From TrEMBL:
Keywords: Monooxygenase, Oxidoreductase. Pfam families: ABM (PF03992). Residues 3-94 form the ABM domain. This is Antibiotic biosynthesis monooxygenase.
């Protein structure tokens, strides 16, 4: 059962976007994507909130998240969060590994 985490990073004066840009340009985001058990690691920008960045971070299971949290990269991430003075809101979801109900198909354009 996959675990998906939505991390909302909020700062001031563009700091959240600068944080995301540094995570990508420094190669840290790519290293996280290469970690065992990582399924997705992508940044998004809410249209109506220019001071927030959404990170969608998905892992195979809790064990993969625990290994990630024990990795040296967490120190780098924490350093960058401090550098950009970011605050976080976290939402956590578990997949049910089921296909979308047939009734939903009418609303999905592929």
């Amino acid at each position: 059962m996959a675990i998906t985490i939505h991390l909302f990073y909020t700062g001031a004066n563009g700091s959240a976007r600068a944080f995301a840009q540094e995570m990508v340009s420094s190669g840290t985001a790519e290293k996280i994507r290469a970690e065992e058990g990582n399924l997705r690691y992508e940044y998004f920008f809410p249209m109506e909130d220019p001071e927030t960045v959404l990170l969608i971070d998905s892992w195979r299971d809790q064990a993969a998240i625990d290994l990630h949290h024990a990795s040296p990269m967490m120190g780098e991430i924490a350093r960058l969060r401090e550098k950009y003075d970011l605050h976080m809101k976290v939402e956590r979801y578990r997949s049910d590994d089921e296909t979308a109900p047939a009734a939903d198909a009418a609303f999905i354009r592929t």
